[in-house]
Amino acid sequence: MKGINPDTLKIIAGKLQDGEQFKPSTDEEKACFDVMDQESAGYIVDYVVKMGLKTYQIFSSIYDVFGKNTDIWEESKSDADAARRLVLKMANSLTSKIEIGGPMAALYLLGHPDRYSSHSFLPFYWRPYAMDVLKEWEMAAERFDDRERNEKDDVTISRNNGNFVSRSNVDDYKMRPAALSSVCLYDYVQCSVRKDLSVLKKGRSPYYLYDEAHPLHASHGVVFDISRKDGIVPNFIGPYLPRKDSEDRDYYCCVMLTLFSPWRSGLDLKRSSETWCDAFDAYQFSEHHSTIIHNMYIRYECYDARDDYFSQLKLRVAAQKNNETIADATEEDAECEEDLDPGDQYDGDDLVFDANNPESMGVWSKRKRAQMQDAQLVMQSAGWTAGVFGTEMDVSQEFAPEQLLPPTHWKKIVAGEKNRILDSRKAALNACDEKRSKGSAPTKNDARVIPGAYLLAKFEVKDTDVYEVMASVLSEWTLNEEQERAFRIVANHSVSVTPDPLRMYIAGMGGTGKTRVISALRSWFEARGEKYRFVVLAPTGAAASQLTGSTYHSFLGINTGDRRKSRKRGGRALDLARGRMRGVEYIFIDEVSMISCQDLYLIDARLKDITRVEDEPFGGVNVILAGDFAQLPPAKGNALYSSEVSQIQLPRASPESQENTLGLLVWHHFVTVMVLKQNMRQMNISAEDRALRAALIRMRYKECTNEDIQFLCTRIPSFNDTIDINDPRLRYASIITSWNTHKDSINAMNSARFAQEHGRTLHHFYSVDKQSQPRNGSVKKKKSAKGPPERPIRLTPEVQAALWDSPPVTSDHIPACLALCVGMPVMIRYNDATELSITKGQEATVKGWTSREIPGHPGRQSLEVLFIELVNPKTPVKLPHLP
Length: 883
Description:
By secondary structure, this protein is of the alpha/beta class. The chain contains 31 helices and 20 strands. It folds into five domains: 6-116, no CATH class; 121-285, no CATH class; 375-392 and 728-870, no CATH class; 456-675, Rossmann fold (3-Layer(aba) Sandwich); 687-719, no CATH class.
């Protein structure tokens, strides 16, 4: 037995010589702790109840053997020899998979069992029973993720007397014989055996019939043998049983009541006014069942002790290295590492370090720390942190929601409001369909000229009503000549009969009125009762919010990066995108400079999937792009103007390169171009504003003059003493930084500063960290949706404290400790609902929160729901249950 304390092996050997017997760990009070150390108990019990390979593992192993030995037929003397070698390799592969050692293989060859035990272990899949109880209490939707909610009891379909009958282990217990109503699930699984009535009637054993509602009531019976308790032990298969010291104690209490309290329905286990913890504490377990519940936790104590021994061994090896007396430490450490179960608690004493100690930092950490210090020095030198202004906040109206709801309910409310806005576009489409279904005027035997000159100024609208609507919209928005030309191109195209698909690009620097053209076009379609034909999209949430639109990722269901690799192209997301695109004929995408060649390819491919039109760019949908290529480039990938993208498919090109090429070729279809040159944002302005506008225009072409440089320097506080960043207008304005580390440093400084200046208490909320790791020790990027949930590694208080002290740069710039106070200005980080202005970059003010204490960490609070008020949102937002 590798990895077990040698002293423990001596104790075990001595006890065995004295005739002492090992007992199963769930069926005796001491659970063999009188004869061995805790760390060895867990190892041996795992070995005793170890199950065989799964079917998919066997086939996977055989498949791997075939894949690695494709040339074995050519290398072998005959087909029989090749088959013999393949079978031998399969046997060796399966042997290694089930961890058969030399002694065990010898026992098998001699016909002896690999172990001797006084008990038999009955496989018991416990999870379906617990899930059935939770579903009846309608708790699955709030307490478990989609994977757990969809986990159902397997129902076996069998033929009985020519009829198909469903068999469910859960129903076997719920519809058990009436004489066994007082038997709990654990005893029922342990002592009951289901047999055919034809067999039972021939024997002498007493039996019971299932409840009349059971599908096997007329064909099978149950033999309940209480003596099976002496030799049969249920072996829990599936996810590990919950620990009594876990964070979710309600789940633990629910599982224990499911196992050891009789029930026919989940509603029998507790009253509606009780929690699972209250019901667990109130229920009187038998002495035998209380012992089993206690022994279930012994398993985790064994694992904890084993991991403690592993940590002590590592510390001992480290000490030996320091004394230069180490001998074969690498092999010893590796042996212990093989026995370490990655799903159990890892003490982590050797991982805890002082995050603020420069001596324990590497090159990367030191560089990030230096960047944070640079940001602090720059802000302090500019006087940003100087002075305490003592501004008191108005607390006359404290924030209080109308109803306190759990986080999942608030998410549903936000999602519902988002869907309501998206569905408002469908309302006009449904009304139009209803009007068409009632029938229109009979079609006259008439002919109409199909216009093909909607791009030209001489294009005339023949219909009077259409002309009046267009004139009204132009009068309302007062567009200049360039803007009106862009507007008329799209508007004329929308009233043309079967025109070619429009591929249009509206260019122009910031302030030339591209957004105004979008607004005018939206009014045009709304005035005609065709709001559903026109949607506005953008690559970022902030840009989409300014246009009261959506991101093309969410609206079209486009995944990029790792999410795209892990998700299928079709599925439910495609069905939802088709629903949102119903009736849409024109898509306006702003900020084209941030769209890469690959992004444009993905948009094109997605629209083809939605419309099922593969031979037309964008599936035949009219697409208008707008933006300024002198502004922000794509966050990832090549810009549409990049010369690094090949216009032809190269041999052996990667999939990404092929998509870039296809995206560039799609960009070449945009042959209708309108350039807006007149700056409309800074009209009737001061001399300084005109100088700024002129400098910005020349800056985009790299033609700044000395006068421009001198003027821009006057806007820097260090060159202009009249600029005070502590001015009320600037004190809490958003700051653009070069690095996220600068942002982290400024946020930490400003949190304390804001609370001090306004006399508010700064509240700290801590993260709840868990580490999940696959049981085979490999690191997976994404958990399987159908596989069993990974058992989290419990973090010790020391490791958790070290994580809380770590800077945000170590966790994707998400602080482990979030400092907040009422009235503090904040900025939304993620695009949760761009239609509601809940988007990345949207400024807001903290109004309140709900939190809870972290179990095992007194005084430490974790944030559950944060209530904020958006600052100048593009779209007014009023959520239910909020003032």
